[in-house]
């Protein structure tokens, strides 16, 4: 009899823990959604208003592309 009561108490405790975890996850997701809705939270490295030439400049500055590739792409982007 004591063992059955013990098992029932464990079941109730596990249900409470599971409920608490789900509530916490749901709360975090709602907060993240609200932050994104108001333009807060995770931001990318480059602002959304960057032009392709700005992106090219940043890539060149970070060393992702060399001078020749930078000049070639700049000509393509500027239409010259």
Backbone structural class:
mainly alpha
How much of the sequence lies in strands comes to under 5%
| Number of separate strands | 0
Order of helices and strands: HHH
Rg result: 27 Å
Number of domains: 2
Instruction: Tell me the span between the first and last alpha carbons.
Output: 88 Å
Largest sheet properties: none
Task: Estimate the global geometry from the Cα principal axes.
Answer: rod-shaped
Separate helix tally:
3
Question: Helicity, in percent?
Answer: over 70%
Ranges where pLDDT stays below 50 over 5 or more residues in a row are: none
Overall mean pLDDT stands at: 87
Description:
This protein has 80 residues and is mostly helical. It folds into 2 domains: 1-43; 45-80, no CATH class. The chain has 3 helices and no strands. The protein has helices at 2-37, 52-61, 67-78. The N and C termini lie far apart (88 Å). The model has no long low-confidence stretch (mean pLDDT 87).
